[in-house]
Amino acid sequence: MQAVILAAGEGKRVRPLTRSRPKALIPVANRPIIEYVIDALIKNGIRDIIVVVGYRKEQVTRFLNQLDLNVDVVVQTKQLGTAHALQCAESKITGDFLVLPGDNYIDPHSVARIAGTQNAILVREHPNPSNFGVVMLQDGYVTEIVEKPEHAQSLMVSTGIYSLKKEIFSYIQGNDLTDAIAAMIRDGIPVQGVPADDWQDAIFAWDLLKMNRRLLSSLPPAREGTISRQAIIQGPVRIGKGTIIGPNTVITGPVVIGNDCTIGPNCCILPNTSIGSRVTLEPFTMMGDTLVMDDTSIGSHSRIMDSVIGERCNLADHSSTSTATGLMEIEGTAILSQFGAILGDTVTSGPFSTYRNTILGNNVTVEGSGRIISRIIPDGSTVI
Questions:
Q1: Residue 114 CB contacts under 8 Å (≥ 6 apart), including other chains
Q2: Span(s) in the chain for CATH 2.160.10.10
Q3: For residue 114, which of 125, 99, 134 has the smallest C-alpha distance?
Q4: 2-203: what fold?
Q5: Helix (H) or strand (E) holding 333
Q6: According to CATH, where is 3.90.550.10 located in the chain?
Q7: pTM of the predicted structure, to 2 decimals
Q8: Across the chain, which distance is largest between two alpha carbons, in Å?
Q9: Is 80 exceeded by the pLDDT of residue 203?
Q10: Quick one: DSSP state of residue 346?
Q11: CA 107 vs CA 58, 236, 310: distances in Å
Q12: Is 333 left (phi over 0), alpha (psi -120 to 50) or beta?
């Protein structure tokens, strides 16, 4: 069986993190999201994989070339939708195939379930169904699918993972694959709804924290680098090569720390934390339920909670992020949100800065001791 991974989109609602990388390459638990998708396929013996790239295609292609796997790459020159992306791969599809989004986590068992079923959608209940294709089922078969309805009639949604036959291409009229599936159903072709065991999507940037928690929960522990004898490490903790853990630092898993980091001394890393490579945590810093990307530095006496921090950020001493609930305007819609801070790449923050329910864009500079609550600061801004 073949598999087509759709990885051409940007993921606009996850900005600012997708300004410099496609959503499929956002690292969660220190691995790009698309890598989990590929792993799930390989564990099911599916190695004939086509990846459709588009937005920042060079980055995705570079990542795929590093894998010990031959992957066909197809370019979608304009990001016109999932159906159009699939059509770009039509010439390479020879029989029955799977379609998977490259920016969602899916577990291998769920892939096994749908791979054995022709004309099927992997479905799962979701508390916010209007962000997805909402599915109505009867006796295990899909009776209707509606893309992102304003008022959803069901909590059951499509995961965007399909098992299809080549006849699907005759039903594609527009740019959305959901419309083609709906046309098949209207034509009397039975489409089965297969329940997913586990599936994670990050609609908004703060949803990455939930995905991070899920993926860390199955993380195998490993300890490399240099760990002080006075450090205390509890639970599943993965520490990369070249990383230095200073004395009196306490780490409680699940936690993953990349290569060549400097942590401590006297730091506290709480569960559900991912720290990329070449990250520095200066002494007396506490961090928990947070995702930190590569080459970031966080000053001493800081407290970073419930946050996503991009690459090459520099947070001065006594920085603080903490959870608050607020409304974020995302693509013209007010969205209820609850998190500490989302920082894009190359953010510079002065000492004694405090953030609650705040998004800082890429290349933002916050001078002095700013206190920012429930705001979005655009890319390139300077806050005085």
A1: 98, 120, 121, 122, 161, 162, 163, 194
A2: 216-383
A3: 99
A4: Spore Coat Polysaccharide Biosynthesis Protein SpsA; Chain A (3.90.550)
A5: strand 333-339
A6: 2-203
A7: 0.91
A8: 68
A9: yes
A10: T
A11: 27, 20, 26
A12: beta
| Size of the chain in residues | 384
CA angle centred on 278, ends 275 and 279, rounded to 5°: 50
Q: Which residues contact 288 (CB under 8 A, 6 or more apart)?
A: 269, 270, 271, 272, 273, 304, 305, 306
Query: Mean pLDDT score of the chain, rounded to an integer?
Result: 93
Phi and psi (nearest 5°) for 329? -90, 105
Asked whether the beta carbons of 364 and 372 are under 8 A apart, the reply is no
Cβ neighbours for 346, distance < 8 A, ≥ 6 positions apart: 310, 311, 312, 313, 362, 363
Token pair listed for 249? 């630092």
3-class DSSP state for residue 138? strand
The amino acid sitting at 357 is N
CA separation (Å) from 230 to 222, 226, 227, 233?
18, 12, 8, 10
Phi–psi pair at 169, nearest 5 degrees: -65, -25
Q: How far is the C-alpha of 353 from the C-alpha of 375, rounded, in Å?
A: 14
Tokens representing 147? 């893309």
Token duo for residue 356: 């609650």
**Residue 198 burial (C-beta neighbours within 10 Å; 0-12, 13-18, 19+):** middle
Please list the alpha-helical segments (H only) found in 203-326: 207-216
Residue for token pair 């008022």: 151
Residue 179: per-residue pLDDT: 87
As its CATH architecture, domain 216-383 has: 3 Solenoid (2.160)
* Average pLDDT of span 173-193: 88
CB 219 within 8 A of CB 254: yes
Q: What is the pLDDT of residue 306?
A: 97
Name the percent of the chain in helix, strand, coil, to the closest 5. 20, 35, 45
**Neighbour-count burial for 223-260, b at 16+ CB within 10 Å, e otherwise:** eebebeeebebeebbbbbeebbbbeebbbbbbbbbbbb
Question: pLDDT tens-digit profile of 218-257?
Answer: 888 899 999 999 999 999 999 999 999 999 999 999 999 9
